[in-house]
Amino acid sequence: MQRGFTLIELVVAIAIAALLVGAIATNYARLQQAMEYRSVVREVLAGMRTARNEAQRSGRPVSFVVDLEQRSYGVSDHGFGRFPDSVDVRVTVASTEAFQRGRSAIRFLPQGGATGGSVDILRASSGEGVRLRVDWLLGHIEQEPVVR
Q1: pTM of the entire structure?
Q2: Which of 40, 44, 47, 85 has the fewest CB atoms lying closer than 10 Å?
Q3: Boundaries of each General secretion pathway GspH domain copy (predicted)?
């Protein structure tokens, strides 16, 4: 009796290993896109809340800015984050807050109100995502599902 593996057993083992590596690589890309999506939603929501709190604390208007051309977002006078390529973004703001070259803002006011608007963050692959909507009267920020 000989010990060891036959050529067929080795080929089958290598084929199974190749399938596993391929499956992991595909799932890794999806996992990374999902992590990027969740991260950008959290960061945009945190930025909006920061702008609202800072406006109330400082007694002056503070804007949350979205630049669609540069694919960036952030609180005025602070650093800006960037939208990853794995997400699509739509912005709806008051006409007074829509500026040139794809730059828009939602201005939070010291009394608690805002100019109102929404930022839609969508998964580029499926079109599903969330709308972060700012109420103009109270400045509340709500998160709701949205489909392209």
Answers
A1: 0.81
A2: 85
A3: 41-136
Q: How far apart are CA 85 and CA 62, in angstroms?
A: 27
Q: What is the pLDDT of residues 21-71, one digit of tens each?
A: 888 877 787 888 889 999 999 999 999 999 999 999 999 999 999 999 999
Average pLDDT over residues 93-118: 93
DSSP class of residue 131 equals E
Can you tell me the distance from the alpha carbon of 108 to that of 17, in angstroms, rounded to the nearest whole number? 55
Rounded to an integer, what distance in angstroms lies between the CA atom of residue 1 and that of residue 3?
Answer: 7
Per-residue burial over 115-136, b if 16 or more Cβ lie within 10 Å, else e, is bbbbbbbbbeeeeebbbbbbee
| 52-83 as b/e: b if 16+ CB within 10 A | bebbbeeeebbbbbbbeeebebbbeeeeebeb
Strand partners, 144: 131
SS3 42: helix
**Which domains are seen in the chain, by residue range?**
7-147 (3.55.40.10)
Check pLDDT > 60 for residue 115. Answer: yes
120 token code pair: 């839609």
